[in-house]
């Protein structure tokens, strides 16, 4: 036997051994859920039906990342599923019953059970004509990717049977995202599957099969058939994945970004003002990576979007200066407006739109700090403008340091350390988290003898500016300042 043949045999054996280990680990994982899945399987068996754990739940069990969401499929029709679950789970939802799905909560687990399906798509809107099937194989073959087309039969005695008619396990072992049939047919049925492929690359660290990558490039325009709400869900799952840089890069490479987030590839040809080897697009990916590294808990949707989009205003503000330099004056202002417009178009919640755009707007503010010469007033305004976003702003500013000059990078981090220390000192001395005037509206009306209205608001804002400039004032000093402001207005003839 030749060396190459021996090497090939060794790879086959190694893959077979890994398959055995993964399946054994998955079996142990699923056995630990016996108090949930076994009684449920018994209830279905009592009605003459089979129950299978399916799709992403099986994939994640094999990969050792199964969460509390459990997806099942069955030959039982939706009305029967509903009857079974209502006698088992304390909370049951039938909002998806028209599509064959009934959901329930049992303890910490969210359970979703769907009748075998065999959908037909209209090839225009991607809306399926829902038809119920009679076989597991027919249900699995209609799924988006082979790695999501595996199932585990749950028996009433707690035993399990692994079902993989499309050999999705081989894709898992190879780290590949591939479709059950030709990707062109799959994407014609539902173009969102192209974006789901990108999302799985981000979540799992896999790669697209060559034919899937080619089909996605050629059919990227078909994503326009999908509602922005569904697109937004996939984009969020992509950005929150364990490998978001790979997901974003693939989104751009396939041309999908041109359709759903054109501002990202729009950064690709913009060289930044520091003349680094990276263009603004690569810089933004680096900032995203460094922001992710600074996360201390669960993935932060707002921080990650702000990190990726913080410089999208640069192409619109790019100016060539005398001497060969490039500037991007006020790109944070333009970028914040662009972020707001794009996120609104994707129908993000108002809170997300506001928070991401505000972080983009503020991300350059620190660079006015210079050598630590900000007054206490400037520090107060920095904290006040950031508000509840201050911790995220800290992370974004630190992540935005991508220079390869170690001395400069260290100096920037030390300067920001100093700013954070000054913020901490001021917070000990005064309530920076809630900077308000030292007199409220009622006190203003009583002192000035005015009714509720515009004057009260203007006086309140004047006192807040004084509070930001000078720090806390005593009630007497605040009243003196208010009366002085009022006297100046009267002298100027203002009402």
Automatic annotation (TrEMBL):
<dbReference type="InterPro" id="IPR050264">
    <property type="entry name" value="Bact_CCA-adding_enz_type3_sf"/>
</dbReference>
<dbReference type="InterPro" id="IPR006675">
    <property type="entry name" value="HDIG_dom"/>
</dbReference>
<keyword id="KW-0175">Coiled coil</keyword>
<feature type="domain" description="HD/PDEase">
    <location>
        <begin position="276"/>
        <end position="444"/>
    </location>
</feature>
<dbReference type="InterPro" id="IPR032828">
    <property type="entry name" value="PolyA_RNA-bd"/>
</dbReference>
<keyword id="KW-0479">Metal-binding</keyword>
<dbReference type="InterPro" id="IPR002646">
    <property type="entry name" value="PolA_pol_head_dom"/>
</dbReference>
<dbReference type="InterPro" id="IPR043519">
    <property type="entry name" value="NT_sf"/>
</dbReference>
<dbReference type="GO" id="GO:0000166">
    <property type="term" value="F:nucleotide binding"/>
</dbReference>
<keyword id="KW-0808">Transferase</keyword>
<dbReference type="InterPro" id="IPR006674">
    <property type="entry name" value="HD_domain"/>
</dbReference>
<keyword id="KW-0819">tRNA processing</keyword>
<dbReference type="Pfam" id="PF01966">
    <property type="entry name" value="HD"/>
</dbReference>
<dbReference type="InterPro" id="IPR003607">
    <property type="entry name" value="HD/PDEase_dom"/>
</dbReference>
<protein>
    <submittedName>
        <fullName>Poly(A) polymerase PcnA</fullName>
    </submittedName>
</protein>
<keyword id="KW-0460">Magnesium</keyword>
<keyword id="KW-0548">Nucleotidyltransferase</keyword>
<dbReference type="GO" id="GO:0000049">
    <property type="term" value="F:tRNA binding"/>
</dbReference>
<dbReference type="InterPro" id="IPR014065">
    <property type="entry name" value="tRNA_adenylyltransferase"/>
</dbReference>
<dbReference type="GO" id="GO:0008033">
    <property type="term" value="P:tRNA processing"/>
</dbReference>
<keyword id="KW-0547">Nucleotide-binding</keyword>
<feature type="coiled-coil region">
    <location>
        <begin position="402"/>
        <end position="429"/>
    </location>
</feature>
<dbReference type="Pfam" id="PF12627">
    <property type="entry name" value="PolyA_pol_RNAbd"/>
</dbReference>
<dbReference type="GO" id="GO:0016779">
    <property type="term" value="F:nucleotidyltransferase activity"/>
</dbReference>
<dbReference type="Pfam" id="PF01743">
    <property type="entry name" value="PolyA_pol"/>
</dbReference>
<dbReference type="GO" id="GO:0046872">
    <property type="term" value="F:metal ion binding"/>
</dbReference>
């Amino acid at each position: 036997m030749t060396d190459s043949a021996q090497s090939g045999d060794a790879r086959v054996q190694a893959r077979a051994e890994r398959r055995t280990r993964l399946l054994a680990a998955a079996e142990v994982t699923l056995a630990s859920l016996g108090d949930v899945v076994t009684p449920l399987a018994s209830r279905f068996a009592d009605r003459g039906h089979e129950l299978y754990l399916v799709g992403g739940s099986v994939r994640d069990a094999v990969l050792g990342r199964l969460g509390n969401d459990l997806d099942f499929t069955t030959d039982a029709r939706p009305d029967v599923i509903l009857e079974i679950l209502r006698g088992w789970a304390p909370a049951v939802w039938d909002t998806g019953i028209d599509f064959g799905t009934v959901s329930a909560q049992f303890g910490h687990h969210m359970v979703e059970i769907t009748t075998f399906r065999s959908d037909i798509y209209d090839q225009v809107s991607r809306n399926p004509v829902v038809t119920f099937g009679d076989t597991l194989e027919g249900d699995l073959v209609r799924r988006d990717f082979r790695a999501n087309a595996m199932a585990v039969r749950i028996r009433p005695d707690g035993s399990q049977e692994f079902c993989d008619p499309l050999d999705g396990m081989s894709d898992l072992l190879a780290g590949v995202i591939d479709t059950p049939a030709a990707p062109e047919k799959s994407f014609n049925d539902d173009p969102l599957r192209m974006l789901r492929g990108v999302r799985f690359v981000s979540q799992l660290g896999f790669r697209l099969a060559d034919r899937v990558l080619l089909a996605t490039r050629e059919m990227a325009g078909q994503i326009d058939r999908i509602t922005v709400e569904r697109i937004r869900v996939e984009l969020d799952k992509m950005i929150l994945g364990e490998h978001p840089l790979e997901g974003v890069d693939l989104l751009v490479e396939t041309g999908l970004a041109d359709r759903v987030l054109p501002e990202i590839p729009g950064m690709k040809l913009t060289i930044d003002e520091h003349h680094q080897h990276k263009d603004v697009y690569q810089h933004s990916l680096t900032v995203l990576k460094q922001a992710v590294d600074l996360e201390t808990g669960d993935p932060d949707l707002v921080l990650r979007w702000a990190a990726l989009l913080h410089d999208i205003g640069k192409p619109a503000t790019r100016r060539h200066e005398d001497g060969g330099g490039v500037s991007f004056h006020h790109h944070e202002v333009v970028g914040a407006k662009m972020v707001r417009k794009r996120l609104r178009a994707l129908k993000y919640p108002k809170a997300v739109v506001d928070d991401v755009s505000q972080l983009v707007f503020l991300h350059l503010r620190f660079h006015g700090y210079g050598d630590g010469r900000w007054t206490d007033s400037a520090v107060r305004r920095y904290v006040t403008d950031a508000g509840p976003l201050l911790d995220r702003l800290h992370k974004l500013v630190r992540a935005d340091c991508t220079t390869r000059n170690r001395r400069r990078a260290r100096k920037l981090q030390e300067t920001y350390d100093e700013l954070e220390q000054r913020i901490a000192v001021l917070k000990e001395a005064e309530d920076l988290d809630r900077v308000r005037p030292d007199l409220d509206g009622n006190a203003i009306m009583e002192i000035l003898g005015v009714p509720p209205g515009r004057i009260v608001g203007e006086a309140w804002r004047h006192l807040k500016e004084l509070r930001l400039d000078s720090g806390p004032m005593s009630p007497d000093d605040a009243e003196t300042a208010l009366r002085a402001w009022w006297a100046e207005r009267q002298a100027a003839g203002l009402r």
